[in-house]
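Render this sequence as a predicted structure.
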Amino acid sequence: MTETKMNGAESLVHTLLANDVDVCFTNPGTSEMHFVAALDHIPGMRSVLVLQENVATGAADGYYRMAGKPASTLLHLGPGLANGLSNLHNAKKAGSGVVNIIGEHASTHIELDAPLTSDIEGIARPVSHWVRSSKSAQDVGKDAAEAIQAAMVAPGQIASLILPSDTAWNEDGEAQEAIEMPVPAPFDESQLEQAVAALGGEETLLLLGGQALTESNLEIAGKISAKTGCAILSEWANGRMERGVGRVYIDRVPYPIDLALKALAPYKRIVLIGARAPIGFFAYPGKPAILTREGAEITKLANAGADLTAALAALCSATGADDTPPAHVSEPTQAVRPTGPITLEAIADLVALSIPENGIVVDESLTSGRAFSPATKGAAPHSWINNCGGSIGYSMPTSIGAAVACPDRKVMCLTGDGSAMYTVQSLWTMARENLDITVVVFANRSYQILRGELTNVGVGNPGPRAIDMLSLDRPALDWVQMAQSMGVEAQRVADCETLDAALEDALANSGPNLIEIVL
């Protein structure tokens, strides 16, 4: 602990920087002005302005997924936090570490019940693992250090530090030096023997999630599969998966309920490493919520917060697979460049051919992208990011965070038009920061996934009013105009040739671009 006196806001910034939290996605207000001033005169923090708090929280999510360390957000009181809850929910489900700094009224002002007064702790708790309100300027540095520690608990946690404005401006703050960070918990060694016995043959499955999906861990899983004959799958949504030619390819448990049930039906025994036992995304009349076959034997070797590398390595050794070449290694994509009218299959092929070497793909394509996984398995090596929480509007903010974390890597953001409208303000930040992001918008002028869900929940022959509530026409959205108005180069395509050229052009240049595909 240093002896230098400073105000609480300054002690907060110094503590963040001392513990390698050097990016802040921010949308500040009056109660946060001392923190803004501290960011201004203390060097080392990159401050990224966003126009809506859900962009800030989603960007922090994407940053953690690619950097492996938390960014901070700066949010204005309870309403500002509330605006960011949707993507904090997604970040929590993804196991991403985020340090939220949330302004609060001065302690003497809270009792007056001013218009912006709210129960900030109550708003924060459902989407946070750790919540604290600093009581004095002297507490701020210590509280910030503990928030960072909490955010780094594996696989990553949401920490929300509430900063009353008087604790920010009072002059008895103390910064904290670098603190010891937590390490992943041990995996459940008592289950190792059972896991080994469970694997073997076509009716067994190794189901992976979280940090089990790194390139090196997937190679270990491929060895286990080659030795034992078990299948390997991942959860439907993953925080990050390494994919592409030369890497072990695994498919995901499908999202649609009937396809998921069919995909999991063959497996009598399932071993979980970093994954949960599969359940349906929603409840459907007359269909099971548990997706595995009746009587399936499930062994949990390691949960998402455990040392998944150690778990896989132990399982590999125990099955005698250490020297076995891995199965399921991806061969180069053999797709022929499609021509003519755009189809979903043609889009998948063109995306596969366009993914840049070491690229990052942020996927919120929903109905338009269900063919992407098999089509892209032999693309250039890349990282693939999914929406783990199901709340739409995550992909463009998450792309911002990924691009800030990895400025030397190109980012492709694949999104439906309905999802993208939730956080359309992201385009402005992409332009302001000159981020190397290519946004591909699938403009089917509807919430197409919900049309399918009408059938899944048993609603037959929906009428025009039901369909109208799921449509995005009257008027149609113009993505080219919206992007250009926020400083992003944009074009609209309606056939394979123009899409192919647009992707090539966008990825050949630095900075943000948007391609609207009319479906």
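Summary. The two ends are 59 Å apart (CA to CA). The domain at 344-518 is CATH 3.40.50.970 (Rossmann fold).
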